[in-house]
């Protein structure tokens, strides 16, 4: 694996190192020790799969409050998504800044999302399928969200979303409430 930091400290892009031959390839998608060596939390409590019928489907921006804050490792293994993270750590020099990357079945890149970051993705293709490992079990009472179109964040989505859940469309704007990460 090749672990590369993003502009938001603590987050990373994880690329596969392919061992190829005439049959195809083999690659390690996760290694606890390599994550530890890179300063990343390696815990995996749960693995989730998300299937999306149409391009333009937006899911997020989600996070869980402490003590249920999650780390996530997101990988798109069918189609393509634009994956976005937002730093919610008030003490961070990149507080409320965002970073986005295209994750596709071809580039096989994964996004490592640290605790106290919001996460969302927008499907760029029909039939996009995403798998993600999570460090903490989903806790409904700890779930929070940010609006995907909040002008205070200024996220530059590559295509307009055409499908957003009612819950995701109705998270409060930052100007309407304080971010609860802790």
From TrEMBL:
GO terms for molecular function: dTDP-4-dehydrorhamnose 3,5-epimerase activity. Pathway: Carbohydrate biosynthesis; dTDP-L-rhamnose biosynthesis. It catalyses: dTDP-4-dehydro-6-deoxy-alpha-D-glucose = dTDP-4-dehydro-beta-L-rhamnose. It is an enzyme of class 5 (isomerase). The keyword Transferase does not apply. Keywords: Isomerase. InterPro entries: RmlC-like (IPR000888), RmlC-like_jellyroll (IPR014710), RmlC_Cupin_sf (IPR011051). It comes from the Bacteria. Its EC number is 5.1.3.13. Belongs to the dTDP-4-dehydrorhamnose 3,5-epimerase family. Homodimer. NCBIfam families: rmlC (TIGR01221). Catalyzes the epimerization of the C3' and C5'positions of dTDP-6-deoxy-D-xylo-4-hexulose, forming dTDP-6-deoxy-L-lyxo-4-hexulose. This is dTDP-4-dehydrorhamnose 3,5-epimerase. It comes from Pseudonocardia xinjiangensis. The gene is rfbC.
């Amino acid at each position: 694996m090749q672990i590369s930091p993003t502009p938001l400290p603590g987050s990373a892009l994880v690329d596969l190192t392919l061992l190829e031959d005439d049959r195809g390839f083999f690659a390690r998608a996760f290694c606890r020790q390599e994550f530890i060596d890179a300063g990343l939390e390696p815990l995996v409590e749960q693995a989730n799969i998300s299937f999306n019928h149409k391009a333009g489907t937006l899911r997020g921006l989600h996070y869980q409050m402490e003590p249920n804050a999650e780390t996530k490792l997101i990988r798109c293994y069918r189609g393509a998504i634009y994956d976005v993270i937002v730093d919610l750590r008030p003490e961070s020099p990149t507080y409320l800044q965002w970073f986005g990357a295209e994750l596709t079945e071809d580039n096989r890149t994964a996004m490592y999302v640290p605790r106290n970051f919001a996460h969302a993705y927008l499907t760029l293709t029909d039939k996009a399928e995403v798998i993600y490992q999570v460090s903490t079990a989903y806790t409904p009472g700890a779930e929070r969200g940010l609006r995907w179109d909040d002008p205070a964040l200024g996220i530059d989505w590559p295509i307009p979303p055409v499908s957003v859940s009612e819950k995701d469309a109705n998270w409060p704007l930052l100007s309407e409430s304080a971010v609860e990460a802790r």
